[in-house]
Write a structure and sequence with these properties.
RNaseH-like_sf; 60% helix; 517 residues; 5 strands
Length: 517
């Protein structure tokens, strides 16, 4: 009976430690949580006070529990990795508050049943240089430690930094060379989201952004001015209560800041007049039209950016969003190039044109069409690596639409078999893509299933890396700079995993259970 009580108390401490890690709380929070729990127990079920008192949530205990849970998750991933037919890796590097370079390595593996596993492979801390060969040593160590065969690597995706993508000694090149040496073949990809943001920055429009940012900073940088502006908006019952800061690192913030500025442009103009700081641009129809166009095209870019984010997104899904956006850009170019421009998809620009009919703003639309054409060219240039595997992506996502003669030799006969099977055609329409391939006969469609597994194993972005770096910065903040690299890795592994800790296994591996004192 006493042993069971101790085991329950220990299990509870593991559960709480897991929640502390998942929610990025300090290890010392355990003591505070226990204090709160004991107060609740005293008031609700005082007869159970001793049982709850046995739950140990001291700082060192919480740290130890988190280490053991992280170790169990790694054990589960290693066990799962044995079944992977193919896997790819996503890498990104960032510097934490203690100036340590942290290399995040995520893996995406696929087994024979088309089950996809996307997990943190490792967090490697680099205290010296971060050249391509240094990163390669770290990635190699992580892959070898997990006992993953190099010939099963299908690709590597990075953010496009020089150390990552250098043609001769970048991490991607070194990884692909290693895979070739081991008898495999891997492709190099640049993160779709990162490339999309770089494309978006191609539309500089500094003559619009600089006055907008200057005005926002004037309003928000001085507390008194900021309070007066918010009160002014309240007094006139404006649509919004404030303007938003623009963060150049976070692309989505640009769209939000621009949209808010545009919506409050009249109120901002009136307020600046009262402060003796008039903004001349707000009375210039051409500048306002440029602002409206930038608001609209940024909104379209932000819709794309949002659609590209998310865990477990297959490369074909991300590429389809990209293709759709390219087609939209061509539509915009045609519509804005017409003698009578069609601005149906540019509502802010349309509003400005309607507000100043005598200024012939429609003459500017050919310039906007040229800017969009330049943006489309930048997209095409930056996504050449994805375009290079477009045939494979099409084969994977729409196998019934591909002519067998256009397919690789090893797929042609199986593709003909597939096309002539009406039941499989029906299944393809009814099932999700993964379930469709999951149900294909393994011997009859071996090559097609192999292609599907390779495509499913590919990352399309480093989204999970970016998201995890946010968690890293939240954990290793100004008051927790002494958090060790190993504990940081443990926290991030627990924070990002889809695995549930196997507490029965962890508890069984413990020789005894210690109640709290």
């Amino acid at each position: 009976r006493a042993r069971e009580s101790n085991e329950n108390a220990t299990r509870a401490s593991y559960e709480v430690a897991t929640l502390i890690a998942k929610n990025c709380k300090s290890f010392a929070e355990g003591d505070f949580i226990k204090e709160c729990v004991m107060k609740m127990v005293e008031n609700i079920c005082p007869e159970k006070k001793q049982e709850f008192a046995n739950i140990c949530l001291a700082r060192n205990t919480v740290a130890r529990r988190i280490e053991e849970i992280s170790s169990d998750i790694k054990r589960q991933l290693t066990s799962k990795g044995v079944d992977f037919d193919f896997f790819s890796i996503a890498c990104d590097e960032s510097t934490d508050l203690s100036d340590t370079a942290q290399l995040l390595i995520f893996m995406r593996g696929v087994d024979d049943e088309m089950n996809v596993t996307e997990e943190l492979l490792d967090l490697q801390s680099l205290t010296d240089q971060t050249r391509g060969k240094d990163l390669f040593v770290s990635v190699s160590s992580a892959i070898d430690d997990m006992k993953l065969p190099w010939n099963k690597v299908t690709g590597i995706i990075t953010d496009g930094a020089p150390a990552m993508v250098g043609e001769r000694s970048g991490l991607s090149t070194l990884i692909c060379n290693k895979v070739i040496e081991e008898g495999g073949k891997a492709i190099k990809l640049h993160c779709i989201i990162h490339q999309q943001v770089l494309c978006a920055k191609h539309l500089k429009y500094d003559h619009v952004m600089k006055p907008v940012l200057k005005t926002i900073n004037f309003i928000r940088s001085k507390a008194l001015c900021h309070r007066q502006f918010k009160q002014f908006l309240l007094d006139i019952q404006a649509e919004y209560e404030d303007v938003l800061y623009h963060n150049d690192v976070r692309w989505l913030s640009r769209g939000s800041a621009l949209q808010r500025f545009y919506s409050l442009r009249k109120e901002i103009g009136e307020f600046l007049e009262t402060k003796g700081q008039p903004m001349r641009e707000l009375s210039d129809p051409i500048w306002l039209a440029d602002l409206g166009f930038l608001v609209d095209i940024t909104k379209h870019l932000n819709v794309l950016n949002t659609s590209l984010q998310g865990k477990d997104a297959a490369v074909n899904q991300l590429y389809s969003h990209l293709k759709a956006f390219g087609t939209k850009l061509q539509l915009f170019i045609r519509q804005l190039s017409q003698t009578q421009p069609n601005t149906i998809h540019f509502s802010a620009l349309q509003e400005i044109m309607n507000s100043f009919p005598q200024d012939n703003i429609s003459a500017q639309t050919s310039r906007y069409a040229a800017d969009i054409a330049s943006l489309a060219g930048e997209f095409k240039r930056r996504f050449q690596d994805f375009a290079a595997i477009e045939k494979e992506i099409s084969l994977f996502s729409s196998p019934f639409s591909v002519d067998p003669e256009d397919a690789p030799d090893q797929l042609q006969l199986e593709l003909i078999e597939l096309h002539c099977d009406s039941e499989l055609r029906s299944r393809h329409q009814q099932l999700s893509l993964v379930n469709f391939y999951r149900q294909l006969d393994k011997s009859r469609f071996q090559e097609i299933r192999t292609l599907a597994k390779k495509m499913l194993s590919l990352f399309g972005s480093t989204y999970m890396c970016e998201k995890t770096f946010s968690a890293m910065n939240f954990n290793k903040n100004r008051v927790r700079t002494r958090l060790s690299d190993s504990h940081l890795r443990d926290i991030l592994r627990i924070k990002t995993t889809a695995f549930e800790p196997d507490l029965a296994y962890v508890l069984q591996s413990r020789s005894q259970f210690h109640p709290s004192h």
